[in-house]
Amino acid sequence: MPDVSIKFCGLSRAEDVSAAAEAGARYVGFVFFEKSPRNVSVAQARDLALEVPMGIAKVALVVNPDDATLDEIVAQVPLDMLQLHGSEPPGRVAEIRARYGLPVMKAIGVAEASDLEAIDRYAPVADQLLIDTKKPKDADRPGGNGLTFDWRLLAGRKYWTVPWMLAGGLTQDNVAEAVRVTGARQVDLSSAIESAPGVKDAARMKAFAAALRD
Ligand SMILES: O=C(O)c1ccccc1NCC(=O)[C@H](O)[C@H](O)COP(=O)(O)O
Q1: Angle between helices 202-213 and 175-182 (to 10 degrees)
Q2: How much is the ipTM here?
């Protein structure tokens, strides 16, 4: 198994941060999206971020944010990256990257081959891409739905001009296969490390990391 970096997303308690660090996460994500069971306030995110050990990147996940929202988050929360998980067009991604001077990861939702065309549009304006399952029509959030997409869509893709992460329904049982099929060297997940919606579980984080290591 190659070395694969893990991002655990949607942490909301200090013990989640400790568990993520202990499991070997290289990124942790804080979700700013009111309809999500993982939603955190700016103050909560700040407290959590201050608990994150050096060397683990702190990522703020936002959905079609306006400048006022981002101004507040960036001013209050010590961050290493912004994750844009809405329908932000490439120009807005570039604008956010320039305005805040933070690396930006743009999420791209995939359900079919044509969705991959977005990779070429966003790679020039983002520092990383997050290739995630496309939001189902009836879902009330654009990510974190615990659903996979057809990984074979990425199988033949050799050239990526920016680093990328694979996401969408990854679990301790399927991640080795997902990495094998797609060639991903970074993975992101949320649902499979929860014991209930929004409640992270230390044992599941550990088991997921072990599945990638062993
Ligand atoms: O997790 C959320 O609640 C969420 C809400 C709004 C936008 C994005 C959201 N999550 C995005 C992530 O980065 C998830 O980790 C990613 O979609 C994978 O989630 P899962 O399929 O649950 O592992």
Answers
A1: 40
A2: 0.98
Residue 186 to residue 90: CA distance in whole angstroms: 23
Given a contact cutoff of 8 angstroms between Cβ atoms, the answer to whether 56 and 25 are in contact is: yes
Amino acid at residue number 212: L
The residue to mutate among 31, 110, 129, having the most atoms of ligand 1 within 8 angstroms of its beta carbon, is 31
CATH number at residue 151: 3.20.20.70
Residue 119 tokens read as 């990779």
Q: Describe the crossing of helices 67-76 and 90-100 by its angle, rounded to 10 degrees.
A: 40
pLDDT digit string, tens, across residues 117-161: 999 999 999 999 999 999 999 999 999 999 999 999 999 888 899
Overall number of domains in the chain: 1
**Backbone φ and ψ of 138, nearest 5°:** -90, 5
Give, in order, the Cα–Cα distances in Å from 213 to each of 120, 123, 187, 202: 31, 29, 13, 17
The label of the residue with tokens 């201050």 reads 50
Helix (H, G, I), strand (E, B) or coil at 65: coil
What's the predicted TM-score (pTM) here?
0.97
Output the ligand 1 site: residues, CB below 6 A.
9-10, 29, 31, 33, 36, 38, 61, 63, 85, 132, 141-146, 167-170, 188-192
